[in-house]
Amino acid sequence: MLTLEEAQDRAENLVAAARKSGADAADAIYVCNASTQVSVRLGALEDVDRSEGEEIGLRVFVGQRSATVSASDMNPASLNSLVERAVAMAREAPEDAFAGLAPEDRLLRKRPALLDLADDSDPEPAALRARAEEAEDAARSVPGITNSEGAGASSGRTQIALATSHGFAGGYAATSHGTFTSVLAGEGSAMQRDHASHSVRHLEDLDEAEAIGHRAGHRAVARLNPVKIESCAMPVIFDPRVASSLIGHLLGAILGPSIARRSSFLLDSLGDQIFDSSVTIMDDPHRPRGLRSRPFDGEGLPTKSRAIIDKGVLTGWLLDSASARQLGLEPTGHASRGVGGAPGAGASNLHMEPGKITPGDLMADVKRGLYVTELIGMGVNGVTGDYSRGASGFLIENGAVVRAVAEITIAGNLKDMFRAMIPANDLHFRYAVNAPTIRVDGMTIAGG
């Protein structure tokens, strides 16, 4: 694997070659990955997978015409051919009034933030196997667990470098460590499955494998003997595991490309109170060891923490340079890019700030409701905000969880759901998108 300095040099050299071949402007992104994953099932080794690869993406501009190409062959002759092909493609591309690099005066010029995204741990396959076995053994030790879908442990490292022809060059490294397991409870057609996992940047932050396994086992057993419920309207409480998906639907509606295409249900909501005043949602690219932390965006612009929902109010869109130009606005440092195409827009670490009451208090006055732990399918219309997804979880009666439920659908409209959201105080940072337990009253439940 290249060092960060070598990766940055490779991106800069490709940009220089593009300029020499006739491009008016160019940028290049280099990504190198190395990862190992070990999988086990029922105590036996199933798979050991080791992968290493590097890719580079080049975007060139000839006037307002552009083209993007990528390659995994780093042979100098192949890269020279890549440059020539990219410039030739750009000369034949249609003009785009919004195409171009990020504004030069907004590029990150100072030293990038130190985000502590990489550690020095590189577990051997034997250590990964031991961790996977420990997780599965712990899950299978839970009374009621009858089978396993397997467990795994992984470790990886990524190097990213970006260079532009108008003055930006930077790179950073990130490591990842993870453990997962999935098990089955019960027998025959009454079997139920569930899982648990944890992923972190630093190995020392990873949950113990035994704890992950116990969590998976107890979750599966709790789902046994589900009942069906009648169709009705009732309060729905979202477990933190699935509550984060509601923030994801908000994100999709405020990305610059969606606004520029006028394909968002929040198109006319900028500056409006769309949540209760108790709700604040943060985008924080500088969280140390965050799963989506980054010192600069996909175009070389600085990143910073901001409230995308501030006390219920939608504060702005998340913009890359192209969508910003289309909307007559400035880019916000949210460009997101892979090696295979032009930048789009995306968030970093997102979280909903915790409320003031406990999950128990959030549930206390619910005479009959639903506690959702799993969502199925993607029945969400990003243009209208209509929401309909399969779900499973637990019935709530008189403020307490009483029995498992399955084969239900929950439905509503995201605008109504956002206004009705009440967060609990149990926020924990475990994922790229994090939320506490959330209550939404008045949702439509379609029972079996």
From TrEMBL:
SUPFAM superfamilies in the cross-refs: Putative modulator of DNA gyrase, PmbA/TldD
Domain Metalloprotease TldD/E N-terminal: 27-90
Alphabetical GO biological process terms: proteolysis
GO CC field: cytosol
Ranges where the Metalloprotease TldD/E C-terminal domain occurs: 232-447
Biased composition (Polar residues): 144-154
Biased composition (Basic and acidic residues): 130-139
GO molecular-function term, one example from the UniProt record: metallopeptidase activity
Region (Disordered): 118-154
Pfam families given in the database record: PmbA_TldD_1st (PF01523), PmbA_TldD_2nd (PF19290), PmbA_TldD_3rd (PF19289)
Signal sequence, renumbered to the chain: none
Domain Metalloprotease TldD/E central stretches: 120-224
Family membership: Belongs to the peptidase U62 family.
UniProt-recorded name of the protein: TldD/PmbA family protein
Organism: Sphingobium phenoxybenzoativorans
